[in-house]
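Check the record.
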Amino acid sequence: MNDDLMNKIILEEVKENELELLLDMQVESFMPLFEKYHDSMSPAIESIERIKRRWSVPNRKYFFINMDGTRVGVINIGHNNPKEKRESYISPLFVLPRFQNRGIGYAAIMKAFEISPDVKRWVLETIMQEKGNCHLYEKCGFKRFGDEKHVNDKMTLIMYELYR
């Protein structure tokens, strides 16, 4: 990973009055996948109410991924045990289409590890057919585990985990 890029990436906690912007970014980022897979669980069709509910949960935090002062994506980190924070999950993670394929997702995950040093196990879910996503998570050290979840004829969800 390019140290220069790592130094340019900052995670900034999303404030309540920024949730509409977060939703706009999420729709822009996930709409191509929704159009490809037509899945009813897509973040592209998620309501602002659902995002607000997720944002208000004490053990979850949304962060804007900032690069050189520009918001280029979002990562949401949740802790299964808010007090111990030993196991955490990432859902969702997205980078705006015009900023994709530059290592930003990788840098954001590495930053998430930095701000959560007590987490021993990280978990996430992704679309098996999206080879770029799978490559990213494997590059970050995640390994596949568990059963595949068939969503429709075009889409299967798989789980990844990483022990640190």
